[in-house]
Amino acid sequence: MPDPKPLDKTHPPLPRSLAVLAGVAIAFLALYLLRYAARVLLTAFAGVLVAVLLEGVARLLYRYTPIKRLWALVIVIAVLLALIGLSLWFVGPRIANQAIEFADRLPQAFDRIRTYLGQQDWGRRILETLPDQIGALSGEFISGVTDMVTRVATALTTALVMGVIGLFMAFNPMPYLRGLLHLIPQGNRETMQSVMYAAARALRRWLLARFLSMVVVGVLTGIGLAIVHVPLALTLGLIAGMLSFVPYLGPLLSVFPGIMVAFASDPTVLPWVIAVYIIVQLLESNFITPLIEQETTSVPAALLILVQVLLTLLIGAWGILLAAPLTVAATVFIQMLYVRAVLGDAIPVMGEHDS
């Protein structure tokens, strides 16, 4: 039998090249699909946050009263629904009217900003560089009302799905926990269960602290803006409170609606409006949040902002909303599974003293 002909190493075989191309194509396809799968996973994670929040509030009842856990959850949900209903009944019409007025004032604010810039030397240079940008923004705002309504409807639908997921998980979390643990090798299930409990504890503390901070920021902002006679103080306070759910970036974003309303109504109160936001944020960052969180669920600012920017670029608005709780949960996993278990460092785990 003749010896086999040696392979020509100067030209790689075609099947291998095709395999490499196929691998690259599959990798890009996986990344493309991962963007959509990430939204589903984030929706599920948001449902987990709802369950953790309900459990955290109900825990205050069934740990310190004779009320059973199931009835404590029912009471918490009933109270929350009652508060939402009463708020919509008494304050909802006023907020709706102010929101409509706010939408009407924004184009006026853009026009006033453009007029103000035109009266300044440095402002005219900006307008010459970007001659039609402010007017374009105003026009885009007016023409984008339909798109805004669609986005709001989509957000409300997604929030409803999150709430339903959270209710199911809050009332009966064990099937979901056991299902996740069955994916882990048997020898590591007990460790993973401890990590999950620790992550839930840290998230519970973070959520309760964040929602208390949101209430305080919203109330203080609304009162401060009302004192300096800014229109729509109630709506602006509500916006500031809601945006403060997003640490660091949220408070910065909440300033712009106040500036727009001040420009549209009375530009002379603009310094007072900015002062109100600065004072409230100084109180929130230096006194309110440290007092509520007690340094147990704090995340380094640079790390959190980096995660917020990264997730926003990858998946959009949901990324910036869920970046902080995702960072809290990931920090617990890293601390317990790597720093403690692998490196052997005896460090405190985030939220640990709440156990």
Query: What is the strand tally?
Result: 0
Task: Give me the strand/helix succession.
Answer: HHHHHHHHHHHHH
Radius of gyration: 26 Å
Q: What's the main sheet like?
A: none
Question: CA-to-CA gap between the ends?
Answer: 76 Å
Q: Give the count of structural domains.
A: 1
What best-fitting shape do the alpha-carbon axes yield? globular
State mean pLDDT (0 to 100 scale).
Answer: 76
Beta-strand residue percentage: under 5%
| Spans of at least 5 consecutive residues with low confidence | 133-146
Helix content: over 70%
**Tally of contiguous helical segments:** 13
Task: Kindly name the structural category.
Answer: mainly alpha
Task: Please give the structural blueprint.
Elements: H1 14-64, H2 69-90, H3 92-118, H4 121-129, H5 133-143, H6 145-171, H7 174-181, H8 189-227, H9 233-243, H10 249-265, H11 270-293, H12 301-315, H13 317-340
Helix pairs in contact: 1-2, 1-6, 1-8, 1-13, 3-4, 3-5, 3-10, 8-9, 8-11, 8-13, 9-10, 10-11, 12-13
Summarize the structure.
By secondary structure, the chain is mainly α.
If you had to describe this structure to a student in words, what would you say it looks like?
- With 355 residues, the chain is an all-alpha fold.
- It has one domain (34-354).
- The chain is 80% helix and 0% strand.
- It has 13 helices and no strands.
- It has helices at residues 14-64, 69-90, 92-118, 121-129, 133-143, 145-171, 174-181, 189-227, 233-243, 249-265, 270-293, 301-315, 317-340.
- Helix 3 packs antiparallel against helix 5 (133-143).
- The longest helix has 51 residues, at 14-64.
- It starts with 13 loop residues before the first helix and ends in a 15-residue tail after the last helix.
